[in-house]
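Entry 12.
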Amino acid sequence: MSKWPLNGMNPRIVVAIFLLISIGMCGMAVASTHIENVHLTITPEDICEQNTVNLTFHLVTAMQSGNGFYVWLDPNICIQPGDLSQCINITYTGMTSPIHPTSVIVFRPTDPGYLNCSPYGAGCMVKMWLGQGIPHNSDVTISFGPCVDPTCPCFCSGYRAWVSNDFAPCEWEVSDTVHMKVRVEGVPGDGGSMQLLPSGPVHATNFTDYFWCMANASYRIAADPCKIISNITVTPICPQLECINCTPPGYTCPCELDPDCVDDYLDLADQELTEYTYDFTYLRCCYQIWAQFENKTCDVTAQPGPNGGILSPDGIWAYYPDTHSRVFYCGEEQPYLIKPNISYSIENVTVNGEEVGFDLLPNGSAIYNYTSDCNDAIIGANFTMSPVDAFLKYQISGNDCGWIEEIQVMGMDEIGPMVEFA
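Predicted 3D structure (tokens):
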């Protein structure tokens, strides 16, 4: 029995099968016998830094002077306009110094000359010619300098490259996939801290965290005692580069090719928050998150009962039924003067309804020293009827301009009417 699997089949069917196989290979690499073991490296991993893109592979077949390589890069790897020949260095096993290509042409996916057999999903095609040969069985590295740089937003599915040589351009080999990181720079202002949830260190000074592309991150922003969160500012810190448009037409990307790196501003002062959680969702850009804090204040209200008044530290009297409020900072200490009306004395002084101690003065008034705990408060005073004080009026002698002086005599259980001395 023959081992040929199509033996005995209708020749037309055999031809049809081979045609279907050939059609199905459109956009697919023919197994290369010239290039093997393609590896892509991008350093550093932080996509917002200046990165170096290196493509390393094993060259099976020797290259002659005048031959060259085709390299396809992912669409989100930025190729800057200009002459790439001086940006690209090529090294291989045993050579003493890198060489530059003699010429480089960049073909966009929409350009005439862009190979029909190019890989599906690849971006621009870079064709480079060699000024000298490369021996067979050499390990070759093509290093793209500052003219080629992946930049944010990072590519959610990672980065690849494809390479072939010019005497078999459609026999390209694809590299492994490289994933990049983004960074978040935290700037906690004076008076607070930031923490990467769920259990990261608490930072009171500037810090940097790194995340794989498309990660989620949440930061707890906390104010110190006597502080509240004033505002939170989030700003993209991605470098802005001019890039050749390498997006292939009709390509279905697993994520948006070029989403906006957005900024954000939250004004939180009116909410008087001491803690807030800021969420980053599907990080594809590098950001700075800056939190500012301000002193917490509160309103302290003087609210006397009938038959007396309270003098606030700002010099304003409050008499029943009126009140007066003053803003306090956390920890601020100020005196309040409580004064009863004639024939009344101070029964008690309260803070939020709870009695507190006070310093009684010889004339029947009192001083209460209030220390703010950053919470709104009401300082009250109640007055009670007392033995009536006698008020004597007498006229000072002519030598003292003759005005009438009023003096108070402490109340007794039995009193007489007011007497005026003429």
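Annotation: Residues 231 and 267 are 5 Å apart (CA to CA). Residues 1-29, 412-422 have pLDDT under 50 and may be disordered.
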